């Protein structure tokens, strides 16, 4: 599963380490299940970039 996330992050133009680090940091505190789609590689935005994923992309996954 982790290798799949790494490869998906690469395919979406993200640094896999930065992606996984951010995802694991967001999972721990108070992330709700409805917010998990934001953490998929094709919706993820690095911290400091767009605060949330494009709502159309999130809706398409839900």
Features:
62 residues, mainly alpha, 47% helix
Strand residue percentage? under 5%
Regions with pLDDT < 50 over 5+ consecutive residues? 51-62
Please tell me the total number of domains. 1
Question: Sheet with the most strands?
Answer: none
- The rounded Rg comes to 11 Å
Describe this structure as you would to a colleague:
This protein is mainly α and 62 residues long. The chain has one domain (2-61). The chain has helices at residues 2-11, 16-27, 55-61. The radius of gyration is 11 Å and the shape is globular.
Secondary structure layout plus pairing:
Elements: H1 2-11, H2 16-27, H3 55-61
Helix pairs in contact: 1-2
Give a quick precis of the structure.
With 62 residues, this protein is mainly alpha-helical. The protein is built from 3 helices and no strands. The protein has helices spanning 2-11, 16-27, 55-61.
């Amino acid at each position: 599963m982790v290798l799949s996330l790494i490869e998906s992050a690469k395919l979406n133009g993200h640094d896999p380490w930065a992606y996984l680090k951010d995802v694991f940091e967001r999972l721990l505190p108070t992330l709700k299940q409805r917010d998990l789609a934001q953490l998929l590689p094709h919706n993820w935005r690095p911290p400091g970039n767009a605060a949330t994923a494009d709502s159309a992309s999130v809706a398409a996954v839900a």
